């Protein structure tokens, strides 16, 4: 039996309505997806702009803070023993004041090879360096302007300022011990050894302990000097002056830039 024409028309209308509803659903879905994608793109763009602004702000030059200036000085001072040439740590000549307040200069005889801290000091000092982190020991020997005194200056490089402070508090209070002299064969310091030391001392600056020890170039030992002559009017002041000058140079504050990228902010 064939369907009535009216029946076929209603079926076709129902099918058409169904197709329209499906089409509308598809359009709505595409609209939602498009909206979501647009929103995601906008969010990404905003994030990129914010990140770009942050990078510009981070990389552009600005004035250093007080803490940054202090850190700059500390780091510069701590690198000097390694970054400076040996002749800058131990200059060819060091100025000191002689008798009658006359300006005089001590001449550097030689610079010893870098060695472990414990290897170039007396046993009581070495025991301190084994407890507290000490990186290296640098030494050089000078003679005064007259060639009468020999002075060895030693720079003990500690891990940092805290290590230097800790080690200094434990060093023995004894002017007979400290850095061991360095003699250079074939020079006026040839006879300068541990027994020839008259006095020893040290001064601290930054992460460094600068030792100095002095004696006579003619080989006289400490025991051979009469008690009343141990405090020679020139020998000890000269040694102190040389140690202080090396320490002052190592610890002198550098010129600090005003900004993170030089002096232009």
Describe what this molecule looks like in 3D:
The protein is an alpha+beta fold and 265 residues long. 43% of the residues lie in helices and 20% in strands. It has 6 helices and 6 strands; from the N terminus they run αααββαββαββα. Strands 1-2-3-4-6-5 form a 6-stranded antiparallel β-sheet. It starts with a helix and ends in a 14-residue tail after the last helix. The model is unreliable at 1-8 and 53-57 (pLDDT under 50).
Q: Helix content range of the residues, please?
A: 40-55%
What gyration radius follows from the Cα positions, in whole Å? 39 Å
What shape does the CA trace take? elongated
Could you describe the largest sheet, including whether it forms a barrel?
A: 6 strands, antiparallel
- Average residue-wise pLDDT: 84
Q: How many DSSP H or I helices? A: 6
Instruction: Give the percentage of residues in beta strands.
Output: 15-25%
Termini separation comes to 96 Å
User: Which stretches of 5+ consecutive residues score pLDDT under 50?
Assistant: 1-8, 53-57
Q: Could you give the order of the helices and strands?
A: HHHEEHEEHEEH
Q: Which structural category do the helix and sheet elements fall into? A: alpha+beta
Instruction: Give the strand line-up of the largest sheet.
Output: 1-2-3-4-6-5
């Amino acid at each position: 039996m064939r369907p009535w024409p009216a029946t076929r028309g209603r079926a076709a209308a129902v099918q058409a309505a169904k197709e329209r509803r499906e089409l509308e659903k598809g359009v709505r879905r595409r609209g939602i997806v498009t909206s979501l994608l647009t929103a995601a793109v906008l969010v990404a763009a905003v994030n990129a702009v914010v990140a770009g602004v942050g990078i510009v702000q981070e990389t552009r030059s600005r004035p250093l803070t007080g803490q940054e200036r202090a850190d700059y000085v500390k780091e510069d001072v701590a690198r000097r023993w390694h970054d400076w040439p040996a002749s800058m740590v131990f200059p060819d000549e060091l100025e000191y004041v002689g008798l009658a307040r006359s300006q005089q200069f001590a001449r550097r005889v030689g610079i010893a090879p870098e060695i472990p801290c414990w290897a170039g000091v007396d046993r009581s000092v070495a025991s301190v360096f084994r407890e507290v982190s000490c990186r290296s020991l640098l030494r050089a020997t000078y003679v005064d302007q007259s060639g009468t005194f020999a002075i060895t200056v030693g720079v003990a490089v500690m891990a940092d300022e805290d290590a230097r402070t800790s080690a200094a508090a434990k060093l023995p209070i004894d002017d007979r011990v400290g850095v061991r002299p360095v003699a250079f064969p074939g020079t006026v310091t040839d006879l300068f050894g541990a027994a020839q030391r008259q006095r020893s001392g040290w001064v601290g600056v930054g992460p460094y302990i600068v030792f100095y020890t002095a004696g006579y170039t003619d080989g006289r030992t400490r025991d051979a000097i009469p008690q009343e002559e141990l405090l020679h009017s020139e020998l000890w002041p000269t040694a102190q002056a040389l140690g202080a000058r090396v320490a002052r140079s190592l610890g002198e504050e550098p010129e600090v830039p005003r900004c993170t990228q030089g002096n232009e902010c």
